[in-house]
Design a protein that fits this description.
CATH architecture of the largest domain: 2-Layer Sandwich
Domain Exonuclease: 219-378
Number of strands: 21
Helix content: 25-40%
Family: Belongs to the REXO1/REXO3 family.
GO biological process, one term: negative regulation of gene expression
Subcellular location: Nucleus
Structural class: alpha/beta
Distance between the termini: 50 Å
CATH superfamily of the largest domain: Ribonuclease H-like superfamily/Ribonuclease H
GO molecular function: exonuclease activity; nucleic acid binding
Strand content: 15-25%
């Protein structure tokens, strides 16, 4: 008799074969049976069948994200490099592809240089293929030297530069005063970069000038922010709460964003228009208070804390991210929500839709952190061997034993059964507290027994900033200096990334000779210069023959007007002479190139002259 593992394998293969039949029919079933027990081959065949059933890929434009500016060779370069290299380089913000699983198989960029008559004119094939749609681009795209140079060189993001510096020197990993579980639970400097935490810069300020080493006695602080949407179109800070290790609320304040609020997101933030009426506290006030109250060895705690720090425009080196250090799923990419972590490990119910308080979230994250420190590194982390099923069994066993004891006690006392232990969401009579300066501190809360009522703040945000907490520790670690890199634009040649690309690695370089730049010598770049051929038609035919062997094809075409001024009347912009050989050549030669491209190729045609430049975009289906 087969083992349970063999039975699971057979059941899985049976389901895969059945799905393959539904997707591709009986012939594919016979091929799948021929595959036999080769599960990997069967899985790949099923993946291909699923991809074939997906809708055709298309490129969608979000030009509004450019803030009203025209796309230039920078944006075109970002798009081309992203489709060829992938997420290792900058993702273009002005467009995206859908559906997501459908990838672009090839990228074809055709740059056409001509006179104004032919830019944006009517062409039978181009108008049909691109649906008569094009984008007006910046005039700098006409500069072919800059255009091709940008495509040959990939900008290195600031985050990537910092990450490489950290990996090379490890200079940004602060000194550990004494080894403890607290220090082991902190995110490393490289993890901060990988998880997109804000780092000190002109826009992001550090929480302290310098920091002291972490020890077992380093204090814990938990922060939680609430955001609303403003006229900027993005999220801006409207509430922030800071709770210290003993549960005392350091501050809990509303914050007036610099721009007008368009959506209060009340369901998620708990913020209403009425609450924000008389708020005068600014983001800078909050930043000053945080810098004043945090000790130089403070550990900041939160769930997905990178979003809170971005809202605060602040950076901190000592981060204990609950979402990263508790791992229930076993996947490094998945994060369990704070609500579910609290339900599982603290057996409480938060964020239930009846009321919301950022202090409640801060206090919950802080208690989870303390539980993790108490139980150890493995606790709550499947990555380190913690077993979710075993934990649930033990938890239910304890709950049943506890319930049995309660039932026995009730029988003996003949008292009525008690209701659920979850906190009730009811309106309470508010306790108004004031700072020594007379300003009201804290906020009204509808949650019974919330930490903001038990240990409300004692000082207002302005008084906290004016009276920094004395710090006797020797602070000599400069976090801002440790992650500082040269902010001048840094580029790498395109071949640097091609070796690691999952797409087709080879690039066909078909541009005319550049005067100021050189095409880097690489096994990944094959040159097809137009000057090496008898005429442009021979060049295009050669390119079409080899096109399918490349992941990126760069084609450079040039057309000069064949009609002199005395041959006809003066033409309006976009109006072509009848039977123009040039107009026919442009349309027919671009058609040749597009037809030679693979299915699901991204086709980019840039038509340029000194007065005007336009760009056509479409995924070939």
């Amino acid at each position: 008799m087969s083992s349970s593992k063999d039975r699971r394998l057979q059941n899985r293969q049976r389901k895969q074969v059945a799905e393959l039949f539904l997707l591709q029919g009986k012939e594919q079933i016979e091929e799948a049976i021929d595959v036999g027990v080769d599960e990997k081959a069967l899985r790949m065949k099923l993946k291909d069948a699923r991809m074939e059933k997906l809708p055709d890929a298309q490129i969608c434009l979000t030009l509004g994200k450019l803030g009203g500016t025209y796309i230039s060779h920078e944006e075109i370069g970002d798009l081309v490099q992203f489709t060829v290299i992938g997420p290792a380089v900058k993702r273009p913000r002005w467009c995206y592809f859908r559906p997501k699983p459908r990838i672009v198989t090839q990228t074809i960029l055709i740059r056409v240089e001509s006179t104004l008559d032919y830019v944006g004119a009517s062409y039978p094939y181009l108008d049909s293929f691109f649906d008569k749609q094009h984008i007006l681009t910046h005039n700098e795209v006409f500069n072919r030297e800059d255009f091709w140079n940008r495509l040959l060189n990939v900008p290195v993001s600031l985050q990537e530069q910092i990450r490489e510096k950290l990996l090379q020197f490890r200079s940004a990993d602060p000194e550990i005063g004494s080894v403890s579980l607290k220090s082991e639970l902190l995110l490393s400097s490289v993890e901060l970069v990988d998880y997109d935490y804000p780092l000190p810069s002109q826009e992001i300020i550090a929480t302290k000038e310098k920091y002291a080493p972490i020890t077992a006695s380093s204090p814990l602080f938990s922060v939680d922010c609430e955001m609303c949407i403003t006229t900027s179109g993005g999220h801006e800070l409207t509430r922030v709460s800071l709770v210290q290790e003993d549960g005392a609320v350091v501050f809990d304040t509303l914050v007036k964003p610099p721009r007008e609020i368009t959506d209060y997101l009340t369901k998620f933030s708990g913020i209403t228009e009425e609450m924000m009426k008389d708020v005068t506290v600014t983001l800078q006030d909050v930043q000053n208070a945080i810098r004043a109250v945090l000790p130089s060895d403070a550990i900041l705690i939160g769930h997905s804390l990178e979003f809170d720090l971005k809202a605060l425009s602040m950076s901190h080196p000592y981060i204990f991210d609950i979402g990263r250090r508790f791992n229930v799923s076993g996947s490094l990419k998945a994060r369990t929500s704070l609500k579910n972590l609290v339900d599982l490990f603290l057996e409480e119910n938060i964020q239930d839709g009846k009321g919301h308080c950022s202090v409640e979230d801060s206090w919950a994250a802080l208690r989870l952190a303390k539980l993790k420190i108490e139980k150890g590194l493995v606790f709550g982390s499947s990555v380190y061997g913690w077993n979710y099923d075993e934990y649930i069994r033990e938890l239910r066993k304890k709950q049943n034993e506890s319930k049995q004891k309660e039932d026995d006690a009730q029988v003996l006392s003949s008292s009525p059964p008690q209701g659920p232990s979850f906190p009730k969401k009811i309106k309470l009579e508010q306790m108004t507290t004031h700072c020594v300066c007379g300003a009201r501190v804290g906020l009204d809360c509808i949650l019974e027994g919330c930490q903001c009522q038990i240990c409300p703040p004692a000082k207002c945000i302005l008084c906290l900033a004016k009276n920094p907490v004395p710090d006797s520790l020797e602070a000599n670690f400069d976090w801002s200096k440790a992650v500082r890199v040269d902010k001048a634009a840094t580029f790498r040649p395109l071949p640097y990334y091609l070796g690691n690309s999952k797409a087709k690695n080879k690039v066909m370089w078909g541009a005319r000779t550049l005067e100021k730049s050189e095409v880097p010598e690489s096994k990944y770049i094959v040159q097809r210069k137009p000057s090496d051929f008898k005429d442009q038609q021979d060049y295009i035919e050669e390119v079409c023959m080899d096109m399918l062997d490349f992941g990126l094809c760069l084609v450079d075409l040039k057309y000069e007007d064949d009609v002199s001024p005395e041959d006809g009347v003066e033409k309006e912009e976009g109006e072509l002479p009848q039977n123009s050989i040039i107009s026919q050549s442009i349309d027919q030669q671009i058609e040749q190139l597009i037809r030679a491209a693979a299915k699901h190729s991204l086709i980019i045609v840039v038509m340029s002259c000194p007065e005007k430049t336009i760009c056509y975009l479409r995924v070939k289906t």
